[in-house]
């Protein structure tokens, strides 16, 4: 341990009642810098009011274990490193003290760029934050800067919900974002690994991937994803293609041979009904049929392939805390 971290006080527990609402900036969330941290080379002999930051050895700062971002653009890091060398570090990183070590809260790009620039120290501010708040800050910082791809966002949401045993509504409230944003992104994790990798690499957009969710068969999903890349489908074209696949599947479910004549005799689905079906397919990730009569009556049929999918849909419809039901068949 270097003299820069002499006698640090563990600050991993946030004070009771601290305002944790996100969307108001990191400073508003974390409060003022701690004034009782002793900078390198100083002692506790006299009070040192107004300490804003201190210089920490690079190797004394540990990574943020809750950082959802997995990929950092090397060109961006190199550019930032050049800026730091030419103009110095304009904004300190934020750290907390955990088990006698400084742990990063915010500023991983600055930390990486400082290392890239070959500097030995970095300017930092020490704040109080518990694990849950640090996880929230890591998510919101990247969301605000659009640094994460859709899969990284989805994985960060899932990790937070699993670790803190909360619901999507709870996380949405704490991050000040719509619950549907969280739900739509987390749904991407239900896709086959090859498609997840396509989204992660940027080959496929989140919109394309979301359109593939209603397809039940993994092989068909992957084949359709490859076709999207080969033929350069737009998201709209993908949605249309998936709808056609689902209609073909519907024909096969009847066990009857479907000819062009019989297709032409089939009563066409009104555009507004088709639009609603497509919207609900995106929401539930499975085939949805809407039958409406002239008297504005009708029914909605939501298809599922097994008990697990049934429970997933049931959770979307009415919450996840109901008792499990047995599915016949």
From TrEMBL:
<keyword id="KW-0238">DNA-binding</keyword>
<dbReference type="GO" id="GO:0007059">
    <property type="term" value="P:chromosome segregation"/>
</dbReference>
<comment type="similarity">
    <text>Belongs to the ParB family.</text>
</comment>
<dbReference type="GO" id="GO:0005694">
    <property type="term" value="C:chromosome"/>
</dbReference>
<dbReference type="InterPro" id="IPR057240">
    <property type="entry name" value="ParB_dimer_C"/>
</dbReference>
<dbReference type="InterPro" id="IPR036086">
    <property type="entry name" value="ParB/Sulfiredoxin_sf"/>
</dbReference>
<dbReference type="InterPro" id="IPR004437">
    <property type="entry name" value="ParB/RepB/Spo0J"/>
</dbReference>
<dbReference type="InterPro" id="IPR050336">
    <property type="entry name" value="Chromosome_partition/occlusion"/>
</dbReference>
<dbReference type="Pfam" id="PF02195">
    <property type="entry name" value="ParB_N"/>
</dbReference>
<dbReference type="GO" id="GO:0045881">
    <property type="term" value="P:positive regulation of sporulation resulting in formation of a cellular spore"/>
</dbReference>
<dbReference type="GO" id="GO:0003677">
    <property type="term" value="F:DNA binding"/>
</dbReference>
<feature type="compositionally biased region" description="Polar residues">
    <location>
        <begin position="1"/>
        <end position="13"/>
    </location>
</feature>
<dbReference type="Pfam" id="PF23552">
    <property type="entry name" value="ParB_C"/>
</dbReference>
<keyword id="KW-0159">Chromosome partition</keyword>
<feature type="region of interest" description="Disordered">
    <location>
        <begin position="1"/>
        <end position="23"/>
    </location>
</feature>
<dbReference type="Pfam" id="PF17762">
    <property type="entry name" value="HTH_ParB"/>
</dbReference>
<protein>
    <submittedName>
        <fullName>Chromosome partitioning protein parB</fullName>
    </submittedName>
</protein>
<feature type="domain" description="ParB-like N-terminal">
    <location>
        <begin position="54"/>
        <end position="143"/>
    </location>
</feature>
<feature type="region of interest" description="Disordered">
    <location>
        <begin position="31"/>
        <end position="50"/>
    </location>
</feature>
<dbReference type="InterPro" id="IPR041468">
    <property type="entry name" value="HTH_ParB/Spo0J"/>
</dbReference>
<dbReference type="InterPro" id="IPR003115">
    <property type="entry name" value="ParB_N"/>
</dbReference>
């Amino acid at each position: 341990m270097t003299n820069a971290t002499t006698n640090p006080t563990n600050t991993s527990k946030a004070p009771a009642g601290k305002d944790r609402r996100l969307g108001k900036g990191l400073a508003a969330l974390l409060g003022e810098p701690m004034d009782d941290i002793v900078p390198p080379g100083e002692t506790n002999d006299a009070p040192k009011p107004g300490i804003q930051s201190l210089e920490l050895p690079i190797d004394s700062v540990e990574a943020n274990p809750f950082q959802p971002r997995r990929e950092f653009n090397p060109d961006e890091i190199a550019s930032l490193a050049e800026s730091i060398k030419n103009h110095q570090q304009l904004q300190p990183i934020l750290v907390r003290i955990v088990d006698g070590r400084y742990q990063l809260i915010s500023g991983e790009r600055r930390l990486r760029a400082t290392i890239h620039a070959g500097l030995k120290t970095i300017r930092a501010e020490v704040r109080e934050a518990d694990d849950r708040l640090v996880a929230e800050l890591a998510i919101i910082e990247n969301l605000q800067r659009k640094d994460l791809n859709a899969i990284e966002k989805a994985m960060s949401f899932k990790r937070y919900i699993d670790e803190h045993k909360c619901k999507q509504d709870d996380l949405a409230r704490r991050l000040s974002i719509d619950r549907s944003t969280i739900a739509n992104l987390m749904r991407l994790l239900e896709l086959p690994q090859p498609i997840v990798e396509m989204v992660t690499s940027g080959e496929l957009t989140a919109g394309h991937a979301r359109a593939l969710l209603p397809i039940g068969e993994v092989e068909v999903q992957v084949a359709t994803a490859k076709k999207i890349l080969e033929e350069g489908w737009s998201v709209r074209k993908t949605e249309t293609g998936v709808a056609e696949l689902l209609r073909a599947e519907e024909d096969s479910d009847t066990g009857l041979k479907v000819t062009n004549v019989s297709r032409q005799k089939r009563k066409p689905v009104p555009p507004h009904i088709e639009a609603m079906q497509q919207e609900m397919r995106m929401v539930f990730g499975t085939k949805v049929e809407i039958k409406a009569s002239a008297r504005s009556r009708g029914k909605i049929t939501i298809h599922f392939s097994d008990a697990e999918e049934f429970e997933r849909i049931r959770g979307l419809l009415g919450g996840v805390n109901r008792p499990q039901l047995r599915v016949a068949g």
